[in-house]
Amino acid sequence: MGILQGSYLVRGGRDINGSYNIMGHPEIGFGFVTNSAFDQHLLERNRQYDMFELLKANPKLLGIGIDKNTAILVQGNEFEVIGDRYVAIYDDTFWSDYFNEIDTSETGKGKFYVLENGDKYNLKERRVQRNRFLEPKKISVNKQEEYSGKYLYEKSKVFWNNILIENDTLKFQIIRRNIVREPIPIYLYDKDLFFDTDAELWFHFQRDSLGNIIGFDKKERQFINGLNQRFNKIVDNNQ
Length: 239
Fold this sequence. Notes:
By secondary structure, this protein is mainly β. It has 2 helices and 23 strands. The protein has helices at 51-57, 141-144; strands at 6-8, 33-40, 62-66, 70-75, 78-83, 87-90, 94-96, 101-103, 113-115, 120-122, 127-128, 149-153, 156-166, 169-176, 179-180, 184-185, 187-190, 193-196, 201-207, 213-219, 222-224, 227-230, 233-234. The chain is elongated.
């Protein structure tokens, strides 16, 4: 049963009326997916709003509702939706496939959103993997060190770009005098070409005649197989 895979056991027992409430006893699941709670038959049995009651009592949990004929395939810190219906996500944000944006403001509270077949979700960062069509290539930490360093931004002495390594992941960071932004992961697509799914940017690293990396530029679009690709959609080449 899917509900057993989470750390919290949803609908652990019946009440005196014989029905399954969202919270019951026992409460502890197998914990294969940590800090999570799974509900099942979600839309089929009109359970999509029950998760809010559980998360009000346990706000640190990630709520995942899985509908009929649907499953998630978990690999590492990521899962992919498989099936012909939907998976609901309760993470205090609101994501729209139409706009491809994640709303993390107050308007995301008290809401859920749904993912469908092929959509991916990052369990560690608790966000939708908005980049659907690009598969990152693996890169060793030793190779990552080749790209790390600080670079001037547009020849300005005020803005700096910082490429660093955190938790075996290459990250991009903006530094403006005393303001240091949160680093954002970037992923290898091809030699000296990386992409950033949060900022939706492509990073083109530049080398000197000796092969040393001396900087990079950032672009919003990248031609792939002759098509102007902007992450989850192909845009008009004439734009």
